[in-house]
Amino acid sequence: MMDFLTTPTVALGTWAWGDSGKAGEGYFGSGFGQAGLDLIADRAFAAGLNLWDTAAVYGMGRAETILGRVLSRFPRSDYRLSTKFTPQAAGPGDNPVADMLDQSLARLGLAFIDLYWIHNPLDVARWTPLVVPLLESGKVKHVGLSNHDLSEIEQATRILGRAGFTVDAIQGHYSLLHRGSERAGILDYCRDQEIPFLAYMVLEQGALSGKYSPEAPLPEGTERAKIYNGMLPQLKALTDRLASMGEERGVAASEVAIAWAISKGTTPIIGVTHPAQVDGFVRAAKVGLSGDEIAELEVLAGAAGVNTRGWWEKEMEPEL
What we know:
By secondary structure, this protein is an alpha/beta fold. Helices cover 41% and strands 12% of the residues.
């Protein structure tokens, strides 16, 4: 178990940082300036949030390069960083995992990664053993599994265990609209094994943020608009209730959705694109939802009847 993962209530996501930098382009349609990103980092560190999540395939290296530049102003001991090996992007060679890691380290300007994820379970038996020499060398301090089902988690755990190492974190798509990891028993497994579960897409790329509605859809021309704009009418009852619960507490709808994920025992990875969002993360950690409120939100989410599983994600089978 990684002690540092139990410290921040929210991890800082940089998926959107892989966009081109021109508004309206890329998956999220987000434009960033160096000054704004520096302000995000300053605000995050002041709030005690120091766990940053990225990946080699976010903008095919762009997000790592930008994040490395932003974090270069801070002592290495002041933050923890996670990035990912993505099997679909693996190159040739004896150890494509090591090769992708070295490329990530170069872009980030770092000597080691605190938490290195196997991004998806394309071939557990093939890729998991290749992480072992990276742990032995110290280039990787901890290993996590992203998008793996329970049997694949157990398989990877056995492989690493034979070399004297452990799976130290699990990551999956988890939100009010996508609770496959819960139904499949993965959250219970993490709780039993005292392994942190990091939840991504908690806000469903903004669809649960309270910022968007049928009258004010997500930015046209972006991938997320193609996925979510057609769902917004079905989500209205849920997003309206998130907003009203927020109003009762003086917080935003997005902060209630984040608080729901925290209440389920997960560490949300929330994409951060503006300094003010960091203050919202701090507020979300202090929102106390009652059992009845949690149940109400889950009923409304189920009634929306939408499927937000990403093309890269497998359907998690319910635990038998």
